[in-house]
Amino acid sequence: MKNLAIVGAGSWGTALAIVLAPRFQRVRLWVFEPDLALRMSANRENDVYLPGFQLPSHVEVTTDLASAVEGAEIVLSVVPSQHVRSLCQQLRPRLAGSSIVVSATKGLENDTLLLMSDIIVQVLGIQPAVISGPTFAREVARFEPTALVVASAEQALAERVQAAFSTPTFRLYTSTDTIGVELGGALKNVIAIGAGVLHGMGLGHNAMAALITRGLAEITRLAVAMGAKPQTLWGLAGLGDLVLTCTGDLSRNRTVGVELARGRKLDEIVASMRMVAEGVKTTNAAIDLARRHSLEMPITEQMFQMLHFGISPREAIQRLMERSLKGE
Prior knowledge:
The model has no long low-confidence stretch (mean pLDDT 95). This protein has 16 helices and ten strands. The strands form two sheets. The chain has an eight-stranded mixed beta sheet with strand order 5-2-1-6-7-8-9-10, sandwiched between helices. The chain folds into two domains: 174 residues, Rossmann fold (3-Layer(aba) Sandwich), CATH 3.40.50; 138 residues, N-(1-d-carboxylethyl)-l-norvaline Dehydrogenase, domain 2. It is of the alpha/beta class. The chain is 52% helix and 14% strand. The longest helix has 23 residues. Helix 1 links the parallel strand 1 and strand 2.
């Protein structure tokens, strides 16, 4: 494959343009903000979302969606979850029938509780692939070793994306479990907010290990209820991504939790962030899904109470620790 279009130039979209550029003769990167696009074209750097990294010379920056996807064999969507439906609606008359659509967005649509792949199927009428796993954009852009998963209901499609995207520093494993891969990537952000709370309170490794382990149990419980394979959540898109996001200082969702523990209000925290912390909205969707499937997700419930009803971090921890005793 020779032509790649990347739609969305946040830190992740920009990092993907950098790491995937050697695999394609032509890469077009669609940028929403005209002023940022002008600077990126002139300086070859995303000074807002990924400063300090140079775009390869053959990465074309554009604000014109039609020209970005024209002739692209793969269209890689890297926009925030709340914009995916709108993007697909704009893509529908512009997309070539032979184009492969890949989603790199981690999140759920709040109103419908749909996965990103569900939205793509619903609006575009095609089966996409999704990529997810433990990835910090800055480390990917530095060409540090990274492993992740590409999933599609069609095994052959996953294998085509795997072959197109794999590099000496960017290794992809295939899966047909799109539900598990997407839910792992979305729900770990909720637990990561909790991890930030623990860190912000100065709590140690015991608490963090318990949160990650019980958080994985919650994620797996919901994912399996929705049709995922449990072993998917034990892999890169589940446990791997969860550990990274809960322990890494580059995690935006963990940062939200740290600031909550320091006493800042959610609106103030979100307003001060340039990039989206998907876990804030995903918490609402996760609670709705848990209720739909009659599941207990106590950590997620306390994150919801803390984010939207103002209970204190200390009270949330107390509620979790004093729940009725049970077997693991």
